[in-house]
Amino acid sequence: MGSGRGPLEHSKPRPWGPDDEKVWLTMNSTTVSAELVLRLVVPDRATVPLLAGLSYTSADPYAIRMAFHVGNDEPVEWIFARELLTVGIVRRVGDGDVQVWPARSDGERTLNISLTSPFGQALFEVPLAPLTEFLHRTYEIVPAGRESSFMDLDAELSNMLWSS
User: Fold this and answer.
1) CB 38 within 8 A of CB 23
2) Alpha-carbon distance 51 to 16, whole Å?
3) DSSP secondary structure code for residue 87 in this structure
4) Per residue in 80-128, pLDDT tens?
5) Superfamily of domain 14-144
6) What is the residue extent of each domain of the chain?
7) How many CB atoms lie within 10 A of CB 61?
């Protein structure tokens, strides 16, 4: 299992990456999740390490949830389009509140994620290798272009129309 690519039935968290920056990846036939250390870029361009949890499920095949662990408070969760993160690996993409683009930080390939809300703006540097591994696993579960076949559109419409 040295390459990190195994059958879809992974159930135990597995470390991925160098010893100083472990990434925990768990996976089964319908979900994949990972914890990785990213860097929050502060105003003087210094960075602060921050733990983030990523999760993906075939029940919501277009979305990746990213929970930022900030202190002792509940994690702050953002939902990203899987395609946005995938395209952001090769070129700048996104409008408005969320923008992503490839970059280098201290010689390491990263993905920059810029988030804007009424409460402020944040810029994160995400190590590209573990993020790419996570995204690859999501495409093993739900191949690109097949997302709609994993959704129950009738249930989604019913939920939107009748929930209040």
Assistant:
1) no
2) 15
3) H
4) 999 999 999 999 999 889 999 999 988 889 999 999 988 889 999 999 9
5) Sporulation-specific cell division protein SsgB (2.30.31.20)
6) 14-144
7) 19
